[in-house]
Write a structure and sequence with these properties.
alpha/beta, disordered C terminus, single chain, 279 residues, binds flavin-adenine dinucleotide
C-alpha cells in the first residue's frame, strides 16, 4: 500500500473522509471511489454495495462535500447484469439523502461501455442524480456525447485509461487531444454541467479560453482531477475561481487503479521504484 499512497487516500472510510475534508478546506469538492473492479462472484458485488452503504452513512454524519463514483464491474456487471443494476439503483436511492446525492458511473474497458451506458439509462429513468463517464479516445464517443446531450445527462469527459485496439480507439496522443477538445466544446455549449476531467495543461488552457470567449459561466461546469496528480494545478484553478472536484479512491483493492496511474506516466514508475528502495 505504501507504494500507492500518493494516488490512494487510504484503506478506511475514516481515511477517505479525512482526505475529502482536507480538499474541502482547500476549496475543492470530491468524488469518492471505493476501489475494486472486475469482480467475479455475487458475494463480492454485494460486498461492494455494502461498502457504499457504509460510506453513505458516514458521509451523512460527516458533512463533508463529496459525491460518489462507482464501477459497474465492481457491482457484478460481468457476473449478472440484473444484480449489478439492482445494486446500482440501491446506491443511488441511498445516496439521495446526502447533501450531494450525485452518483457517477466510471467508464471501464470498451467491451463494457454499452452495458454500462445501458445500466446508466435504466437508472436515469428513475433518478437524475446519476451520470456516466465518456472517454474521448473511443471512436464511438461522439455519438454517445450527442445521445447524452439529448438526454440532458451530466457527463464526465476523460481521455480514457485502458489499452484499446486501434479499431475501437484513437491511439495517437494528438488525435485524442483534438477529439477531447471537440467533445468538450459540444458538452460545454449544449450539455448539462459537464465535468472536464484532465490534467493536461494545454487542454485546460484551451477550455478556459473557450469558456471565456463563449461567455460560459464558471459555475456551469467543473474541472476534475485525480487525487495526488498535479496538486499545484488543482490549487491554481481554485484560485482562478474555477470549480474543482478531486477523484478520491480508497480501500485495499488498489492494484488495478495504481497500475493505470503508473502506466500513464513513466516518471511514476521511477517514483514507485525509488519509493521501494528508500523505504
Ligand atoms: C477525475 C477523473 C476521473 C477519471 N475517470 C475515468 C474513467 O471513468 N474511465 C477512464 O477510462 N479514465 C478515467 N480517468 C483517467 C483518464 O482517462 C486519463 O487516463 C488520465 O486522466 C490521464 O489523462 P490526462 O487527460 O490527465 O492527460 P495526460 O496527457 O495523460 O496527462 C497530462 C499531464 O497530467 C499529468 N498526469 C497525468 N496522469 C498522471 C499520473 N498518473 N501521474 C502523474 N501525473 C499525471 C502529467 O503532468 C501529464 O503530463 C479519469 C481521470 C480523471 C482526472
Amino acid at each position: 500500500m505504501f507504494l500507492a499512497k500518493r494516488f490512494v487516500a487510504g484503506t478506511t472510510i475514516t481515511d477517505a473522509v479525512n482526505a475529502v475534508q482536507r480538499l474541502n478546506d482547500a476549496g475543492m469538492t470530491a468524488t469518492l471511489d471505493f476501489l475494486g473492479e472486475d469482480i467475479t462472484r455475487r458475494d463480492e458485488a454485494e460486498r461492494t454495495h455494502a461498502a457504499y452503504s457504509e460510506i453513505i452513512t458516514a458521509l451523512a454524519r460527516s458533512g463533508v462535500r463529496t459525491n460518489l463514483s462507482v464501477k459497474m464491474t465492481a457491482l457484478g456487471l460481468h457476473v449478472d447484469t440484473d444484480l449489478a443494476q439492482r445494486l446500482l439503483d440501491s446506491i443511488i436511492a441511498e445516496a439521495s439523502t446526502l447533501q450531494d446525492p450525485f452518483v457517477r458511473i466510471d467508464m471501464e474497458r470498451s467491451s463494457d461501455v454499452s452495458a454500462t451506458l445501458q445500466a446508466f439509462r435504466t437508472a436515469y429513468a428513475k433518478s437524475q442524480n446519476v451520470g456516466p463517464v465518456l472517454q474521448a479516445y473511443l471512436r464511438r464517443t461522439p455519438d454517445d456525447v450527442e445521445a447524452m446531450i439529448d438526454l440532458g445527462a451530466r457527463v464526465r469527459l476523460c481521455k480514457g485509461a485502458y489499452d484499446e485496439r486501434p479499431e475501437v480507439a484513437h491511439t495517437e496522443k494528438a488525435t485524442i487531444r483534438r477529439e477531447y477538445l471537440r467533445l468538450a466544446e459540444a458538452l460545454l455549449s449544449r450539455g448539462k454541467y459537464p465535468a472536464i476531467a484532465t490534467h493536461d495543461p494545454g487542454l485546460i488552457e484551451s477550455i478556459s479560453r473557450l469558456t471565456q470567449e463563449r461567455g460560459i459561466s464558471r459555475d456551469a461546469f467543473e474541472f476534475q482531477m485525480l487525487y495526488g496528480v498535479r496538486p499545484s494545478l488543482q490549487r491554481l484553478l481554485v484560485s482562478q475561481g474555477y470549480r474543482v472536484r478531486i477523484y478520491v479512491p480508497f480501500g485495499t483493492h488498489w492494484v488495478g487503479y495504481f497500475r493505470r496511474r503508473i502506466s500513464e506516466r513513466r516518471a511514476n514508475a521511477f517514483f514507485a521504484l525509488s519509493a521501494l528502495f528508500s523505504r
